[in-house]
Amino acid sequence: MKRRPQNRARQKQINILHTTTRQRHSRKQMTTVGFWTAIVLAMVVAVGVALHFGVNVLLDHALYTNPHYTLKKIVIEPDDLSQYTIRQTAGLELGQNLWTLNLPQITHDVEKLAYVSSAKVERHFPDRVVIRIEKRKPVVKIVAINDDLGTRETFYLDRECIVLKPRPDEPAPSPPLPEVIGLVNAEVEPGFRLEQPILVRALQILDAINHTSELNTSIDIRTIDLSQPLSIKMVTTRDMSITFRTDCVDQQLMRLTAIFERYGNDQRTLHTIDLTPDQNVPITFYE
Asked: Given the DSSP bridges, would you call strands 163-164 and 179-181 parallel, antiparallel or unpaired?
C-alpha cells in the first residue's frame, strides 16, 4: 500500500524533468534560429545598401555626369515662335545633362504660355532636345475699349475662348476673322479665358458652321453680335443676317442646313434667317 504513492511521486518527478529539458532545448533552438536569421537579414540589408550605392555611382558616372550627354542644341518647332521665351520658360540651358531633364515638368511649364495649345518635349541622344508646339489658333477677333484712356486694342480668341494678343510684326489673318461685338463686362487680358456662356455658345455655333460642308461653302461670317442676352446674331460678308437661340443648337443647325439645301441654288438671295421660333423659320430675300 505504501509503494504506490512512491511510484507515483517518482513518475511525476520524471515527467517534470522531461518537460523542463524539452523547454530548455526548444528555447535554445529558437535562440539559435533567431541569431542566424538576424545575421542573414543583416547580410541582405548590407548587400542591398551596397548594391544601391553601387548602382547610383554607376549611373552617375555613366549617365548623369557623362559629358557625352551634354545638351548642345535646342530645337523649337515651329521656328516662328520666340526661341528665347520658350527656352527661359522651359528652364533649358546649353551644357545641361540630358538624363537630368524632367520632361513632364518642362512640358507643363511650356503649356502655360498663352499662345501654346499643347507641347511635346523629346530627348534626342546624345545632345539634343526638341520641343514641338501646337499653337492656339485664333477663330475670332474682339476689340477691347478702354473708356478711361480712350484706346482701342484688337485681340484674338481661340476655340476655347483664350485671349491672344497679336504680335506687333504678326500679319493679319487671311481671310479676316469674324469680329465679336456687343460683349459687355468682359475683361480682355492675354492668356485669360473669357467665361461668358453666350460667347462660348457663339463659338460653338461658328465651329459647327466651319465643319459642315453645306454651311461652310455658303456662309462666311463677318460679325457676331452678342448684345442680346437670349440670342446670337451673325452677319455674313454678303450682309445676310442669321439669328440663333442660345439653346437647341444642333436642331437649329439642322434647320439652317435644310434651308440652304432648298434655297442655295435659288435665283433669289437670302437676306434674313430667324432660327429662334420653336416651329417654322421666318426668312426674307433681297428684292
From this structure: unpaired
- What is 138-285's CATH number? 3.40.50.11690
Domains in the chain: boundaries = 67-135, 138-285
103-130 as b/e: b if 16+ CB within 10 A: eeebeebbeebebbeebebeeeeeeebe
Domain boundaries 67-135, CATH class: alpha beta
Q: Is the pLDDT of residue 2 over 60?
A: no
- The whole-number pLDDT of residue 44 equals 82
> The C-alpha cell of 8 is what?
507515483
Strand partners, 156: 141, 164
CA–centroid distance for 194 within its chain: 18
Q: How confident is the model at residue 45 (pLDDT cuts 50, 70, 90)?
A: confident
In the chain, which ranges are continuous DSSP H helix?
A: 3-59, 83-90, 103-110, 197-210, 213-216, 249-263
| Contact predicate 97/138, CB 8 Å | no
Question: Which of these, 228, 281, 287, lies nearest to 259 by C-alpha position?
Answer: 281
Burial classification of residue 232, based on how many CB atoms lie within 10 Å of its CB (0-12 exposed, 13-18 middle, 19 or more buried): buried
Cα–Cα distance for residue pair 253/218, rounded to 1 Å: 13
pTM (predicted TM-score): 0.71
State the CB neighbour count (10 A cutoff) for residue 88: 12
Query: Does this chain's domain 67-135 share its CATH topology with 138-285?
Result: no
